Each structure stands twice: as structure tokens, then as C-alpha cells.
Amino acid sequence: MSERATRGERPARADRPAQIDPIAEARRQWLDHGWADAAPGMTLVTSVNRAQQLLEARVEGVLRPFSLSFARFEVLRLLAFTREGRMPMQSAVRRLQVHPTSVTSTVDRLVRDGLVTRERHPTDGRATVLTITDAGRALVERATAALNDEAFTATGLEAEELAELVRIIALLRKRSGDFEDPRPAPEPL
């Protein structure tokens, strides 16, 4: 029995495809039990969760040879995108949209591995600035190339399908309060 199975987790991908769609079967059960009004929402939540498992398994598989999790990759990539390879920790927390404790834990491992350093903020003694090291930059560039080749360009969807799915998910995120449309900039004087 696998370690995942002993922890009660579903595998990210079965050795063979299921003979029936378990989510469609769950939907049928919802309908049979008189929960027709909730069946579409249950189907959405279950479908998105399963899609996340499948995508996450692919990404984690690509990153495994680099000894990176997706969380560690995201921090490195975020820092590498900046002009100077530096960013205040609070800015990283906001942009990554995860709990500060999770970012701190991820950064601790990156610092331990020599991929990121922590520095005092030059003007705010309570703040920390994260800086990507040369080793971190080299690693994230190699990992990005692998992800682009093996995961991000091989989604299993056509370009139009992918764009529509991203649009719909963005609509769900926006209506859930995840982000707002930017305010229009005033005309210059």
C-alpha cells in the first residue's frame, strides 16, 4: 500500500482511467437524494478539486528533479521577476495569496538551501527583504524551462478551451472577492 493510501489520500492519477466518472456518479447520487439545487455546485467543487489534483501532480512531477515544490518555485520565480531580485516579505505574501506562515516556512527552506537570503529592510526595522541568490536564479530558470515544456504547454486543452476555462475561473474568483478590477487611471493633466 502506498504512503498516500495509508494516509487516506486519493492518488493523483490512477494506473488506469476509472470505468465511470466518479464525479458524474456523485452528481447522480445528489439528484437521487433530492438535492437537485445543490448538485451543480457540488459537481463544480468536486471537479475543480480533482482538476487541481491532476495539475498539481503534473507540476510537482516536473519540479521533483529540481528538489522544488510549487510553493518554493513560486517564491523563486516571483523574486526572479523583480528588477533587482529583491522584494519585501509582505509584498511576496500579498502576491502569492497564501498565509504569511506558509510563506515564512517556504522561505526558511529556500534560505537553508542557499537559494534566497533574508535582509533587514533599509527603512523599516520590522520588515524583511527577500533576495534571490545566484544559485536560486539559476535553479528557477532551469525549473521554469522544464515547467513550460512539460506542464504549461501540455495542458490537454486546446487554446480556445484553455482561454475559456481561465476566463470562467477568473469570474468565479472575482465574484468570490479574490480581486477587483483595477480602478481607471485619471487622465494626465
Describe this structure in words.
The chain is mainly α and 189 residues long. Among the domains are: 19-66; 67-148, Arc Repressor Mutant, subunit A (Orthogonal Bundle), CATH 1.10.10. The chain has 8 helices and 3 strands; from the N terminus they run ααααβααββαα. It has a 3-stranded antiparallel sheet with strand order 1-3-2. A hairpin with a 7-residue loop joins strand 2 and strand 3 (128-132). Helix 2 packs antiparallel against helix 3 (39-63) and helix 4 crosses helix 7 (134-152). The termini are far apart. Mean pLDDT is 90; it is low at 1-8.
Series of secondary-structure elements, N-terminal to C-terminal: HHHHEHHEEHH
CATH top level of one domain is Mainly Alpha
**Tally of helical segments:** 8
Compute the average pLDDT.
90
Rg value? 21 Å
Number of strands: 3
Read across the widest sheet, the strand sequence of neighbours is 1-3-2
How big a fraction of the residues is strand? Answer: 5-15%
Distance between the termini: 69 Å
Q: In which range does the helix fraction lie?
A: 55-70%
* Largest pleated sheet: 3 strands, antiparallel
CATH architectural designation of one domain:
Orthogonal Bundle
Pick out the low-confidence regions. Answer: 1-8
